[in-house]
Amino acid sequence: MSSKNVQGPSDGFSRREIKKAVTKKNFSHPMTLFPTSAGLAATIGAVLIGGPAVWAMSLGLVGLGVVSWCANQFLRFEKLASGHMAALREQMRIKREEKIGLLQHQLGELGCPSGSSQLAKLHEKYQTFKEVLDQKFNQTEFTYGRYLGMAEQVYLAGLDNLEKIALSLKSVSTIDESYINKELHLLEEKKGGSTDAQRDALLDRLGLIQKSKDKVGDLLAQNERALTQLVSTASKLTEIETGPGQSSMAMDQAMEELGRLTSNMSIYDRNS
Prior knowledge:
elongated
């Protein structure tokens, strides 16, 4: 599957997606929906019954709904967007905490020190990024919410990769590689159809182990790139000058790179 056809997890914190989500919520806001619906119903009544009072009521109600939508869309947009992003981040926080405790146990049990190390590093790099962000922006700002949300998605994508690693290791944990190699060595001294079939079965199991190792290596490498990008982006953040509601083009580009990285991490299994 081409990555062009896959919506990456960071898309939820792009300007376009945030505006789309807030606009959709504004249409269903009670102060927009109810007056407009009642106004349209009154308009039908005005067409059927007539009378200036009914027309005035219908126009007044529709007007109230339109004014409410415009106020939310243009005057309260950043506040509503901040609330929307906070809700998304809370969902990710809950998922993150659920995964961390389970992964700490699984990776240790499966003997994956590299995975355990990455689990700790993901938390460390994310916290560092958040601390830098806290110093640069007000937590109620639109830019703060976008940047933190994208960093949290990198964190969550890294945890998803560690989850895939644990699952891959678990799937081959009952295969004894040393036993298979020993049996293959013994079979080299024998010949026959049954021996060939046994050798093929043993080699198939070795192939499963190698496939798991390759996948684990790829996922660990993805996480290392994510960790490097988090550090790099935090470093760029310390160098820019920001005022209220402002962010530099360089920082936006760095965050977009984080978004592309997260999207690539999310489509690994779809292409494998």
